[in-house]
Amino acid sequence: MHHIVASMAGSIWKIVVKEGDVVANGQDVVILESMKMEIPIPSETDGKVKALKVKEGDFVNEGDLIAIIE
């Protein structure tokens, strides 16, 4: 399993995938908003989204778990 974590503190602006979706390496999982910029957070592996640990509007800190890919 691979854990996707926040690269910086910010708000979850948009969730691009849903649980059960198949994702490719480099495919965006969520869009983080930080300092009025939109930062895509991609998957770092091919796999299936096992769990999303955030919802739109949530605030995350750097290193917080966003999703689990299996």
TrEMBL record:
PROSITE patterns: BIOTINYL_LIPOYL. Residues 1-70 form the Lipoyl-binding domain. The keyword Transcription regulation does not apply. Transmembrane segments: none annotated. NCBIfam families: PRK05889.1, PRK08225.1. InterPro entries: Biotin_Carboxyl_Carrier/Decarb (IPR050709), Biotin_lipoyl (IPR000089), Single_hybrid_motif (IPR011053). The gene is accB. It comes from Pullulanibacillus pueri. It comes from the Bacteria. Pfam families: Biotin_lipoyl (PF00364). The keyword Transferase does not apply. This is Acetyl-CoA carboxylase biotin carboxyl carrier protein subunit. Keywords: Biotin.
